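job 3f2a | input accepted
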Amino acid sequence: MAALTGRVAVVTGASRGIGKGIALALASEGAIVYVTGRSVTSADSPLPGTVGETAAECTKRGGKGIAVQVDHANDLQVAGLFEQVQREQGRLDVLVNNAFALSDDLTEPKPFWQKPLSNWEMVDVGVRSNYVAAWHAAKIMAPQGSGLIVAISGYTGVAYTYSVVFGTSKSAVDRMARDMAIELKSYNVASISLWQGLTLTERAERNLATIPGLTGGAATRPQDACSPEYPGRVIAALIKDTDLMRLSGGTFITAELAQDYGIKDIDGKTIPSLRASRGAPIWLPI
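job 3f2a | predicted structure (286 res):
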């Protein structure tokens, strides 16, 4: 029996990218994974991937993928997602808050006042959406006395990366994860934030190939990059950790947790921590 057989996960923003990689990694260990996102057909995004395709691959990996179309800016759709999880499974073991509204001009080297105010959407789907999903997840996890809520963040929590709104959003989810941990502690539910470095998603690979000079940036060195499944392997280890609550409230560099758990990327590579060059997390476990 796979290590996560019977465990139930919700991974938001999993049509493609980091969310898809996390969903596949959890499914590979037998988990039931609810895959959320807006893309249900290839016409829904210029990038490849749909919730149905991710869910189908999760099932092929040995778990069970369940596709749910969700716009995480729509509270009613989010509520419907968690009602479905509760109705179909009666439990929830892990929520991975990955959904994020990356602006098309994110990597353009312009100051914030020369970018549209609509970039604030990164706060709406990236910060507020994390809170809404966690609010619903906690209503399932707290009564059962167990669970894990993971926020996907990055070094931009302390190191300027791309834009004002991007950094503000990631800093906020780090603090949110910490304060949620305080209120969830007595219910034996853990809350942590993970710092990803460059992850070779469909969007990242397109940008690296088409934007001049991008590969030379501190945040975009291909030699430091990981696959989208790498953080999923770390999250799987967290779920299996019988002393998980010792980590609750902390912000962690994914590569450092991977080293602690003896995890390598899918190609056997050891991903470096960029603590020395990009900064250290602020929030320690509670």
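job 3f2a | The chain has a mean pLDDT of 95.
job 3f2a | closed
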